[in-house]
Amino acid sequence: MKFVNKNQGGFTLLELLVVVGIIAIIGGAMLSSFSGQEATAARGVATSAIAGIEDATRIYRATTKGTLPNNMESLVCANYDAAGTVSTSVPSAADGGVLPATAAATTSYKYGGTSNASGIGGGMTKKLAAKFDIAALTALQATALNDVGITSMRYAISEACDTDVTTTASIFALDGTTSVDFGDGGEGLVGIDIPNQAFEGLRPDGQTGYKFRGIGFAGTIETASPVLIWKKGDGGYNNIKLGAAESDVLIAMGVGQASDLVGTGPNAAFSKAPFYGQVGKDKYAHYIALINVGPAGDEFTNGETQVQAVVDARGDFLDEEIAEFNGQKI
Predict the structure, then answer these.
(1) Is pLDDT at 94 greater than 50 in this prediction?
(2) How many domains does the chain have?
(3) Which of 24, 57, 213, 261 could form a disulfide with 203 if both were Cys (CB 3.0 to 4.6 A apart)?
(4) What confidence score (pLDDT) does residue 7 get?
(5) Is residue 136 situated within a structural domain?
(6) How far apart are the first and last CA of the chain?
(7) Planar angle of CA 321, 323, 328, nearest 5 degrees
(8) Is there a domain that residue 232 lies in?
C-alpha cells in the first residue's frame, strides 16, 4: 500500500516573492558598490600611461643622442597644403581659436573644443582645449624644436574639420589624376568614425575617393607654423605645477600613431598609441606631451628643449591623476 505525503510540494507564492526581493536587494547593493568604478579604473590606467610615456620620451632622447620624437599631433586644424606648408594658416583670434562652423581660408584653429559631451562637436573636449592658446611659432621657438629633431607635425585638414560643405580641400585620388573635393560631406569632427586615427593620412575608399576617417597631413615646423601653447595661468601657476619656470613656453604635441615614439621603428616604445578611455566616443583620446622650448623671448638654442610633462585627454597631469584615482581630488 502506498501513502502520499500531502505536505510535500514546492514553494508558496509568498516564499518566492520573498526570495526575489532578497535577490533584488543584493543586486542593487552590488550595483551601488560598483557605480563609478569605470572612471576610477580609467584614472588608474592613466597614471600608469602618463608615467610610461614620460619615461619613454626620456629613453628615446638618450638613445637618439638628444633628439625628441618627430611627427607628433599638433591638435590644430590648418588649411591643407600638399607640400606641408602650414605657416600661412594664421591662428584664429575669435572665440579663443575654437573651430567655427565654417573654417576661413588661410586660418588655423584648435582641433575641436566646443563641448565635453559625447557625440557633440568632436575633437578635443572643451575642458582640454581651454588649457591652451593657439599661436604662431616664433623664429626662436621653431629653431628650438628643429634643434632636437622636431621638423614636422601632423595637422588636421581644416576644410574637413568644419561642418560647411562648401569648404573643401582639392586632393588627388589614388589614381593620380582625379581631383577629389575632400571635406564636402559637412560631417565635421563629430563624424570621424575612428577619432584616434584623425591625424593619420587619408584612407582610400576605392580609387577615386576617401573615407571620412583620417583627415591629417604632415606640416613643416618653421617660423609661423600654428601650434597650441599651454596657458601659464595666474603667476605662472600652471607651469610651476608641472615643474617648469613661470615664463617657459610649453608646446602641445599629441602622441599619435605617426609619431616616432610609436610603431615599428628602431626607437619606438609603443606598438600602438596609448589612449585615455574616459572621454566621449567622438573625442580626442591620445596623451599629450608638453614640450618646453625655454623662456618666452629667450628660447633654447643648444638642444635643451625637453618634454616637461605629459597630460591626458582631459588635460590632467600625473600628480593630479593620482589624486583623482585615490579619491582625494574630485
Answers:
(1) yes
(2) 1
(3) 213
(4) 55
(5) yes
(6) 75
(7) 145
(8) yes
Instruction: Read off the pLDDT of each residue in 40-55 and give the average, rounded to a whole number.
Output: 75
pTM score, whole prediction:
0.85
| pLDDT tens-digit series, residues 294-325 | 999 999 999 999 999 999 999 988 877 777 76
Residue 136 cell numbers, joined: 604662431
Q: What confidence tens digit (pLDDT) does each residue in 24-37 have? A: 777 665 555 544 55
Q: What is the mean pLDDT of residues 3-7?
A: 53
Q: Per the domain annotation, does 24 fall within a domain?
A: no
C-alpha cell of 329?
581630488
Instruction: Assess if residue 205 is contained within a domain.
Output: yes
> What's the average model confidence in pLDDT over 92-106?
92
pLDDT (tens digit per residue) in 229-284? 999 999 999 999 999 999 999 999 999 999 999 998 889 999 999 999 888 999 99
State the Rg of the chain over Cα: 25
pLDDT of residue 34: 47
How many angstroms separate the CA atoms of 26 and 23, rounded? 5
Q: How far is CA 224 from CA 89, 155, 262, 313, in A?
A: 8, 14, 27, 26
Query: In the 3-class helix/strand/coil scheme, how is the chain assigned residue by residue?
Result: CCCCCCCCCCCCHHHHHHHHHHHHHHHHHHHHHHCCHHHHHHHHHHHHHHHHHHHHHHHHHHHCCCCCCCCEEEEEEECCCCCCCCCCCEECCHHHHCCCCCCCCCEEEECECCCCCCCCCCEECHHHHCCEEEEECCHHHHHHHHCCCCCEEEEEEHHHHCCCCCCCEEEECCCCCCEEEECCCCCCHHHCCCHHHCCCCCCECCCCCECCCCCEEEEECCCCCEEEEECCCHHHHHHHCCCCCCCEEEEEEECCCCCCCECCCCCCCECCCCECCCCCCCECCECEEEEEEEECCCCCCCCCCEEEEEECCCCCCHHHHHHHHCCCCC
